[in-house]
Amino acid sequence: MFTGLVEAKVELTGMRKSPAGLRLELNFGGLAEDLEHGASVAVAGVCLSVVELEGVVAVFDVSPETIEKTCFADAPIGKTFNVELSLRADARLGGHFVTGHVDGLGCLLARQDQGEFAVFTFQAPPEVGPLLIPKGSVTIDGVSLTVASLLADHQFTVALIPETLATTTLGSNQVGDLFHMEGDLLGKYVFRYLEQARGSN
What we know:
- By secondary structure, the protein is mainly β.
- The protein contains three helices and twelve strands.
- The strands form two sheets. Strands 1-2-5-4-3-6 form a six-stranded antiparallel barrel. A six-stranded antiparallel beta barrel has the order 7-8-11-10-9-12.
- A hairpin with a 2-residue loop joins strand 7 (about 105-115) and strand 8.
- The longest helix has 15 residues, at about 185-200.
């Protein structure tokens, strides 16, 4: 379990095919001190397990199913990803409950910079769109964000503060970029309950 509060931006230093699908090598720098073999890490919002540690470089296997739902396979060496270590049971929940199971890929439709702030307009995938509500939560590339407004056809806006733009990869993103999106966990349960209730009538 994660919170969507990014701890660092890390660089992709290597990528190769493996029997498991794809193997990623990420330079965690000083954050590597808190890693161990088997640890769960949200990498751009995707829950991955450390399979090797080589100094400050952590190695992760990405399964074929995850490859299909993410942008990892197209990532160039040198690309940076948002990362967050798993939530401790005694830690404060500063964002919202994030599972690290990406629901689909969304797209940045517009970016309006307003001084040090910015408003992004996203196209949500069909799996995420029905879960969005004004002032509700959504996870984008591992970042817990609040929906500012809902638009037609599963489009929505978020307002980004300077801290988020500076400490996550979102500050460098441009129109047309794709993102890993995860709908709110509580919203998923409510949506599923209503689906079943309608089906039983």
